C-alpha cells in the first residue's frame, strides 16, 4: 500500500534525523544506508522549506454595484468577490483550498 503524503514526509524526516546524528557526510550515509543521494537532497530541501503561500490581497470596493460593503480578494491569482451576507465558513474553505 502506498504511503500518504504525510507518511512519506514523516519517513524522510526520520531519515534526515538519522543522517544528522550519524556523524557521516550525506554521501557516505546515503551509500551506507542504500538511500538515493538525489532523493535525500530533494527531501532535505522540501522539509526544510515552509510551504509557499501566495500573498493575500484585500481591497474595499469603492464604486459600482458592489459599493454596499462588498470587497474582493485575490488568492493565488484567483479573484473572489465577497458581498454582504456571505458564508464565512465557505470562504475559509475556498481560501484554504486555493492556498494548498
From TrEMBL:
Name of the protein in its database record: Transposase
Amino acid at each position: 500500500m502506498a504511503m500518504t503524503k504525510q507518511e512519506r514526509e514523516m519517513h524522510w524526516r526520520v531519515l534526515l534525523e538519522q543522517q544528522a546524528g550519524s556523524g557521516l557526510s550525506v554521501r557516505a550515509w546515503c551509500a551506507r544506508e542504500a538511500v538515493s543521494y538525489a532523493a535525500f537532497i530533494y527531501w532535505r530541501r522540501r522539509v526544510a522549506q515552509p510551504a509557499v503561500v501566495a500573498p493575500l490581497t484585500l481591497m474595499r470596493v469603492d464604486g459600482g454595484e458592489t459599493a454596499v460593503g462588498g470587497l474582493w480578494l485575490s488568492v493565488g491569482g484567483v479573484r473572489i468577490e465577497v458581498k454582504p451576507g456571505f458564508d464565512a465558513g465557505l470562504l475559509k474553505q475556498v481560501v484554504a483550498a486555493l492556498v494548498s
